[in-house]
Predict the 3D structure of the following.
Amino acid sequence: MAKILLEMRNITKTFPGVKALDNVNLQVEEGEIHALVGENGAGKSTLMNVLSGIYPHGTYEGDIVYDGKVCKFSNIKDSEKLGIVIIHQELALVPEMTIGENMYLGNERGHKFAIDWNTTYAEADKYLKMVGLTESSKVQVKTIGTGKQQLVEIAKALAKQAKLLILDEPTSSLNEEDSRALLDLMLGFKKQGMTMIIISHKLNEVAYVADKITVIRDGTTIETIDNRGPEPISEERIIKGMVGREMTNRFPKREGVKVGDILMEVDHWTVHHPLYPERKVVDDVSINVRKGEVVGIYGLMGAGRTELGMSIFGQSYGVNFSGELKIDGQPVKLKKSEADAIKHKIAYVTEDRKGNGLILSQSIKVNTSLANLDSLAKMGVIDQDKEYAVAEEYRDKLKTKTPSVEQLVGNLSGGNQQKVLLAKWMFAEPDIMILDEPTRGIDVGAKYEIYCIINDLAAQGKCVIMISSELPEVLGMSDRIYIMNEGKMVGEMKASEATQESIMAAILKSGRGA
Amino acid sequence: MDKKAIVATLKKNAMLVVLILVYLFFMIMTKGSIFKPSTFRALFNENAYVYILGCGMMMCMLTGGNIDLSCGAFVCLLGAIGSVLMVINGVPVGLAIAIMLAIAVAYGCGLGFLVAYVNVPPWIATLAGYLAFRGLGTSILTKNSSTGSISVGTKEKFLNIFSRTLFETPEGSLNMICLLAGVVAAALVVFLVFNTRASRLKKGYEADSIGAAAVKSGLGAAAILLVMWKLAYAGGIPTVLVWVAAVVLIYGFITSKTVVGRHFYVVGGNIEAARLSGVNTRRIMFIAYLNMAILTSISAMIMLARFTAANADAGKNFEMDAISACVVGGVSASGGAGSILGMVIGATLIGVINKGMTLISLDANWQRVVKGFVLLAAVVFDILSKKRES
């Protein structure tokens, strides 16, 4: 048996209120490619952040044993000194700087006060050649494509004398061809003795490249699968580990809700990326929603779900829209304006409640009334007593835990913030509510309460579109499920007929077809 | 009230406490001359522009810590244009005022368009005006006058609107109208505080305790009575006081009671959340800069009347005075928080420090040093107190 290069023993990491990792164990042999798979939020990235020192020693329990020694990293520099280099999902390159400058950022050649640019560029060119790039290291990063930028990231890691390379979703922004080239490059490094850990959602890639696969679910290691046999492992085998959790009644029943007529239809909806207008983020998608119906939209990260939701809501994301929106059978020409969407009774409840949803420095009252403030005002003057009453009403209705509606939203817990966000949009009295990841980052009890609110909305005859990347939630809450992948709609199922495996299979099938 | 609550209240009103302490300090240092009626009058005349520009600057800062660097230079330019119109071209006073206002609206629209719709960073967009307007104003003045200064001393009507005194009585004798106005205003403050409290209690909402309401209204009424009593011995109500009071009351109302005012706060608090809640964020930015230009034109007229002449130095550093008043008064330098009352306290504090330092004849250069440190101390205090809260 080969030497164990890295062992993570009984790692437990708690965030306020959440146990992100619970006794996780991971063993990586020298010279292998080890894959980490799991659903969004399973704890893969947290584990890698513990390993690389982003979460320093002391903030977690358990031991990291690297090269036979117990390591106590207090920051990223410590782990890099030992050759553990992590390449994050979001590229960390400065677009205005040259490739060479980027590669040696924070790792400059020469003297602290006299950078040796000749060495820098000469060495940069050497590493670029190793990753198969022919570009000069003196060109600006913004002039090369995303695929090549990913390779620059790898060259940058090599320049740090990496012995253990961690790649977090390295192919998430690459097309099929670039992805394959990257994976082959990884296999080439393996031959030269490099050890790698890859985190990926794309199970076909994992099956192709990995020697061993560790499955993480809900912050614990489920199993480690050996993939060194003559036949690559089947994706179904991996999926079983990823989703195989029990489904108890975590979801309140929706009883006596009659699903009515179609209220909103979206036909051949196409949206382009705001910064790269040639890229389609939503590609010819058609959906419809009925009154009183909860429609789930599932997809992995980057599937285009949020982009679809936001573009329906007054074109608040993207450029070059095409397609048709019908409400009550009538075509609606929505202007590029959120206020216009609200007027047409559409609401979009963002997944990013702190960044895009709430004004943390203002009170619950101010946040609750914001989207429909005009209804509380006469001649532009706010009736503040009425506003207070409205905020109180929704605090009662949603059981928001707070001493007062004058409390600043920034001081509330995640679950209560989510309720304030929902209150804001319920007060706007929409007919169509697009809920984007309505239970992200909140605890189980609060989740149940949010589900009850969703059921109430449906009972009132509203259309609810629930975007989620949690499969059990989608299955447990929806009447009908749409499945998206890479901007396209790849499946539609009745919730009663769908299973976790069939949904995953729909995504994977489309991925291979592309 | 327990000790904790008292400390919390003092902390919340720290600048008011500082204002009172600074005032008492100068009372001792100047042996009471800061308490003279003439000093009160001078305080208003010298600082009227700070209150008015402060209102406009606060609206800009609320949207996200944005500032207007051009207002001081714009005061100079508008003064030059106004004086040339009235004195050289003999344009009637009313028309001249209208033209000055129209120019301000035009500039405000242009600036607002650049900031809100072209996304030019506000400090750069206004830096252009800062550089250009004083040059333009000075060249207009030197072209029309050999001394580079044009006097509007003969335009009685103009001076009556923007300077002088209402119902003037000789200095030293008691002006009954001024005193009466003070009594009415003080009574109104007490009535409003208790009326709001009563209506909140009736509907079962949170309200101030009776003690807090008494202290609040008592302090407000006492401050008004003190100022008006002193002014009553200094000839009467200065006309600028009417302008300042009107502007401060209007903006106090807008920021605390109206939809558009609320939108300024939410844009500064989280512009993405505001946009996704249907707030027209670009229009708010546009209004902020249009509004600033209009208030600048009122300041320009007040300054022209006060000095009875337009000259190249008019409006120098006004932008900095307005920003200082806001920052010292607790308007957040990153936007989304602040109140008109706070800004008024900040402006008054800076005014009192200026006046006090002049009265004890501190060297003008050292006055600047003190002002600089006061500003820094206010911001550091603001940041530290917020940190402790969270």
The first helix of chain B runs from residue 3 to 12.
